[in-house]
Amino acid sequence: MSQPDWPDDLAVVVLLPDTLLSMGVQRLGEGLDALGARPVRARSVRLDAGHAAAFYRGRQRSKSSEKGRRYGTVLTRRLFALDSSLVVLLKQHTDPGDGTGLSRRLHDLKGPSAYLQLRPGSLRALSRSSDRCLSLVHTPDDAEDAAATAALFFDAPRAPDTADNLAACGQNEAWSVLQDCRSPLPLTFDVSRYAIVACSLLRCVALSLADGTGRPPAALDRLVRTRRALVEWLAQKPAEAPTKERARFGRLIDRLTGDGEPLTSLVVPELAASVAALLSLADYDLEWADFVAAEFTRHGLHLSDAEIHALSTLMTFFDD
Questions:
Q1: What pTM does this model have?
Q2: Which pLDDT tens digit goes with each residue over 41-50?
Q3: If we measure between CA atoms, which residue out of 307, 50, 93, 316 comes closest to residue 202?
Q4: How many angstroms separate the CA atoms of 257 and 250, rounded?
Q5: How does pLDDT run across 95-146, given as a tens digit for each residue?
Q6: CA–CA distance, 29 with 221 (Å, rounded to integer)
Q7: Residue 48: how many CB atoms within 10 A of its CB?
Q8: How do the residues of the chain divide into helix, strand and coil, expressed in percent and rounded to 5?
Q9: Is 241 helix (H, G, I), strand (E, B) or coil?
Q10: N or C: which end of the chain has fewer CB within 10 A?
Q11: First CA to last CA across the chain, in angstroms?
């Protein structure tokens, strides 16, 4: 897609692992409100050195930092390896009135990455730990870069023609849905034994809401209800008695599987097998957990070692 083919009212932003793991997506969304832009499509990816090369297209990086030029490549690779990233397509919903394309204004709002150069009011200044190679977001420089980045991750000819399913999730909910696309398992004494399943299902449902595919109203409504049910369950305090907490989890699964059309037919096709495995309590075992982890990895959804172990332990000893 050449630069003239990229609309002025679209832009691409890549939310990097440090943003997702710090639960900073909504904060960034609030910062992006200054542009009058909202998310309409997203995809979870595991970035690698090939993506970095494509992002910068051979241009010099860290022009003002000798250490950035020496170590930036390896530290960027380490940043990418921390977790999934989220590639988000943004659409302008209010006219800025200055004739500037959204991609350019997004790039300017991003701000410098170096800690001592952080600019108040920029996206990167939202984090007190933002730094070079811990930089929250990647944005293309201009419309040409945006078109090239979109082509890496989306079906480029369809990118501008995207169904805005996120608007159906409720006012000011779109960025919350995107955070749910990476809902990390809290590692505390108070988290439910079963939360790893709820978190994993939530990721699948949120990514299905954000994939930009047109859906019948009934199917879209079902996905919205399912997401809310999972969010509400995770927000509730777990029962202290193991049998009561097991029953609470069972009621959640009954709710998800008894609400009309099978959930596996509503999520994006590449996540259907994982959703089926997570919902099939009678089949839980270690091999099933390994299958879910492998499927997540194959489709750009990182699970940490702690999350994989929590899922493996639950599925292996589910009836113990």
A1: 0.93
A2: 999 999 999 9
A3: 307
A4: 11
A5: 777 778 899 999 999 999 888 999 999 999 999 999 889 899 999 988 888 8
A6: 23
A7: 11
A8: 55, 10, 35
A9: coil
A10: C
A11: 55
